[in-house]
Specification:
This protein is of the alpha+beta class. The protein has one domain: Ribosomal Protein S5, domain 2 (2-Layer Sandwich), CATH 3.30.230. 35% of the residues lie in helices and 16% in strands. It has a 4-stranded mixed β-sheet, sandwiched between helices. Strand 3, helix 2 and strand 4 form a beta-alpha-beta unit. The longest helix has 21 residues. The radius of gyration is 15 Å and the shape is globular. The protein starts with 17 loop residues before the first helix and ends in a 15-residue tail after the last helix.
């Protein structure tokens, strides 16, 4: 029997298309934390979607994949406490990989700030709401 409140991370919660990334960047709502820059934009959906961008400068493929896994895991575990209806892009800067808890706390704080900023935007500034593909 499947739990009612699962902590799955289905494909509908991931940003994968280049146009989605570009739309979030164009929204110009960001928080710069040194080792991470987090962009967000309202998406008009009932859930938050996340995308991660890691340039090769961050390190070897092993390091980049570890950081990406930790960020996604932090999002997955705290998805019920995070703001909803946002598209989020996390741009990683070169740094030593941190512990999962530090990534979680960083994401939580930054997303709360970004949610407030996105709520203040006029409706026409959150252009091109994506369609919910979960059918």
């Amino acid at each position: 029997m499947k739990p009612v409140h699962s902590l799955r991370f289905p494909a509908k919660m991931r940003l994968r298309l280049d146009r989605d990334f570009r739309r979030v960047y164009a929204g110009k709502q960001r928080v710069d934390l040194g080792f991470l820059t987090i962009y967000a934009l309202s998406n008009g959906l009932t859930h938050t979607r996340i995308g991660v961008s890691l340039p090769r400068k961050v390190g070897t493929a092993v390091r980049r994949n570890r950081i990406k896994r930790l960020l996604r895991e932090g999002f997955r575990l705290w998805q019920k406490q995070l703001p909803t209806s946002l598209d989020v892009v996390i741009v990683v800067r070169p740094h030593e990989p941190k512990q999962l808890k530090e990534y979680q706390e960083t994401l939580m704080g930054a997303l709360r700030k970004l949610e407030i900023r996105c709520m203040k935007l006029e409706p026409d500034q959150t252009q091109n709401h994506p369609k919910d593909d979960s059918a």
